[in-house]
Write a structure and sequence with these properties.
Layout lengths: L5 E5 L2 E2 L5 E5 L2 E5 L7 E10 L2 E11 L25 H18 L22 E9 L2 E7 L6 E3 L9 H15 L14 E9 L2 E8 L6 H9 L5 E7 L11 E6 L4 E5 L2 E5 L9 H17 L4 E5 L5 H8 L3 E6 L2 H13 L6 E5 L2 H10 L5 E5 L8 H10 L3 E6 L2 H12 L2 E4 L2 E4 L7 E9 L9 E8 L1
Parallel strand pairs: 4-6, 11-12, 16-17, 16-19, 17-18, 19-20
Antiparallel strand pairs: 1-5, 2-3, 3-4, 5-6, 7-8, 7-10, 8-9, 10-11, 12-13, 14-15, 20-24, 21-22, 23-24
Length: 462
Amino acid sequence: MEKNEIREGIVNSIGYNGEGIIKEDNFVIFVPFSLPGEKINYKVLKVHKNIVYGKLLEVKTPAENRERPTCSVYTKCGGCQYQHLRYYRQLKQKSLVVQDCLKKIAKINIEVPLTVKSDLIYGYRNKLVIPVNRDESGVKIGFYACNSHRIVDTTDCSLHSSWVKDIIQCFRTYIKQNDVYCYSEQDKNGSLRHIVVREINGKFIIVAVTKDKLKNIDKLIEVLQTKFKFFSLYINYNDKDTNVVTGENFDLVYGESGLKQTDFGITYEVGPQTFLQVNNGVKIKLYSDIKKFVSNCNANFVIDAYSGAGLLSSIVAKCGNTVHSVEIVKEACEYAEKLAKNNGIQDNMTVHYGDCSQIIPQIIQGCNGDFQIILDPPRKGVDRKLLSIIKNSKPKQIIYCSCSPQTLSRDLGIILGTIDEESGEFVKTDSPESEYEISYIQPYDMFPQTKHVETLVFLERI
């Protein structure tokens, strides 16, 4: 098999990243945007030993589950992987991914139920992060192509509501009318480099991320006022050459510092750095299930690790539990403390600012084993040191919420003793020993049209 060769094949299955997989002779061929059962023509882009990466050229025999994408830049933009797949099949595929990861990574064989659907399969995202870049052809505002920093210029995104189109248009107008010298990935110079927006009940927090001083900010405010009635505008300065979107300093130049939202009878405030699930409808379903399981456990203390702005902590505290909320982002901790006070649950909820692996061992000492722990870590999973501490401290129940089936599987394998680390690699243990068992596992479609899935797992002490 040679690079640039045009070949025909029949797709056998779908990979973790949503690509179709063809198995031919000794080769495994990955072709994005193709579906099982389809006969396709594809171009060979890269060959590495027996692994081949191809580009879909033609679908000769479409699968019954093929759907017409709604986005004009689908297959070019790297944001979505499943718009060509009917929604019910997306749900089934995400369940299979979780199940397969548990089997291959954690060496755990368990049947994973159908993924809980999102009521909105488009227009569900309440947060926008979109890069801005200047090149020889001009200024581009759009999303990165897959596995690159090449921006696919766009005017809209179907995963967000109609406001995203107005945001992009406002910034294009501001840039053009004020001759804004935007950031360039090539020469590392310029100002505006990202636009970040959070929408809460028709109100917006807008962040302009810039390397250098942004000119004529008053003109940007005027342009935004033509489309948005209620908004706050922050200027964030980020002069680092990294993949991190925002810098440390946020300057409020217009509007209120945060937005208020009410869920489960809890009113809370969201700021420009606050973590919040991007899909409100699925968030309610997910948190409702967590609340139910916490209520059914008779532990006196609940530790909420990676707690963000404290919404989940406060929901649990409102039920009468004594909650320790632990978060490393200072702004989020400040909002969590304000949340507890404003909702009259400060006696039940203590907010801790700092690294979970350093703070939680101190909290555990005061719980005398009478506690349960909620883990909702970033995509990289739980700190290895913290996992060891949790295992040794033996909480009554472990609730793990994850946006990565891969790191979830690794961490569950460690907790349940089904895998050990040897020379930097995880291997199956001969005789797994654990004081816990999985009593519940459920994926949730927090991110329709994409390969991503949220998974909730409850571990009960045997």
